[in-house]
Amino acid sequence: MLTAVRQATSNVFRLSGLRALSVKAEFPGASSYYTTDLNIRVTTQEDPQECFRLMDEDANILNESLFPSDITNDTVMRWYKEMCTLNHMDNLLYNSQRQGRISFYMTNYGEEAAQIGSAAVLDSEDIIYAQYREAGVLLHRGFTIQNFMDQCYSNKDDFGAGKQMPVHYGSRELNFHTISSPLGTQLPQATGAAYALKMQEKDNCVICYFGDGAASEGDAHAAFNFAATLDCPAIFFCRNNGYAISTPTHEQYRGDGIVSRAAGYGMDSIRVDGNDIFAVYAATKAAREQTIAANRPVLVEAMTYRIGHHSTSDDSTRYRGEEEISSFKKRSGIEKVQKYLRNQGVLTDEVEADMQKEIMTTVRECFSVAEKKKKPSIDLMFEDVYDSKPTRLAEQVHISFHLCWERICQPTCFVLLFAIFILIILFLLLFT
């Protein structure tokens, strides 16, 4: 008997450095192997997940075999122009807020590569849910500079008819759902949309952008868990830029970034250098192919850095040093793309100067046009909420009309309107 027990206990093998019995532990909650070792796993001492990249700091390609074959110099030049356009637009609109011309703004400095590189992979029928720092995704998709300006100025051509804060873009035509202010709400919505695509048997996916701060919201847990258990074709694209407004990542979590959470939900994952546009493109392309083919969500963590302030309501120098910002600025995505194009002999000083001048002219012209446009009609405040207007809303429309009419009929307004009428008559008599 004792011999048999000794033989049984000696029949062991190693799994991840732990002594595990060959007998499998089968439970409804999980399946693993039994072990006789009492060992608490210290995850913070394990090696972190690798960060995939294709380009070094000097814009040299590190692995030619993995460099996307469909990317040409013309493609990269287009991306670079979009990144520069985004910078010029950010600069102008940020300053316009400081002058009191618009109420709010958020820049994209430092995160251009993560935006453009991922957007370039997507099909026009893929559905996008964004947070608030993905203007580059929308720009690449076809949203014009004029569209951006109109939205920030809430004028008559704003697709949202002035109902949203600036930078809360949206476009039904471009399958880009309107941005919401509450953090993380887009995550479970994206899971629902991905489940709908699966039910419709479409060869498309949903991509949902969010930051490291949003990953701490309860909505993130619900989104990840439902997407995994319902086998949804969704890409969860995390822009880990180091800060949730003023809270650095070391105060947000103790684990290995955001990518480590994928295993707990049963999602596939990859960590990528978010400042390497080619790596972002390759990683997102692989994630898209995998999530559509397998109907499994994929978590992509793009490691990047927010060079600008969180928003016009923030002063980031109060919680981080200029030296830190300057260090990351030198190795930002746009700097790498510029170096790459110069290494390829495509971008010369003359070409750069002409391009920057063209971009600046376009951005300023659109800015000037948007500022002069009229505001949306007040009647539109009752539209775009319900498919068919409920009775209580129809009553409000009726009441607002009568209130406006009563104001017009007040003695002061009536006298003013009468005086204007007389002036018009006199003008016509004198000059016709």
Topology:
Blueprint (H helix, E strand, L loop, with lengths): L1 H9 L1 E4 L2 E9 L4 E5 L37 H26 L13 H8 L7 E3 L5 H7 L3 H8 L33 H14 L6 E6 L6 H12 L4 E7 L2 E2 L2 E2 L12 H5 L2 E6 L3 H18 L3 E6 L18 H9 L2 H11 L5 H24 L18 H18 L2 H21 L1
Parallel strand pairs: 4-5, 5-6, 6-10, 9-10
Antiparallel strand pairs: 1-2, 2-3, 7-8
Helix pairs in contact: 2-3, 2-4, 2-11, 2-12, 3-4, 3-9, 5-12, 6-7
C-alpha geometry: globular
Proportion of helical residues: 40-55%
**SSE order, one letter for each helix or strand:** HEEEHHEHHHEHEEEHEHEHHHHH
Low-confidence region ranges:
1-18
Quickly count the helices. 14
Question: C-alpha Rg, in Å?
Answer: 28 Å
Biggest pleated sheet? 5 strands, parallel
The average pLDDT score comes to 91
Walkthrough of the structure:
The structure is a single chain. Strand 1 and strand 2 form a beta hairpin. The chain is globular and about 105 Å long. A five-stranded parallel β-sheet has the order 4-5-6-10-9, with helices on both faces. Strands 1-2-3 form a three-stranded antiparallel β-sheet. Strands 7-8 form a two-stranded antiparallel ribbon. It is built from 14 helices and ten strands. The protein is an alpha/beta fold and 432 residues long. Helices cover 44% and strands 12% of the residues. Helix 2 packs across helix 4 and helix 5 packs across helix 12.
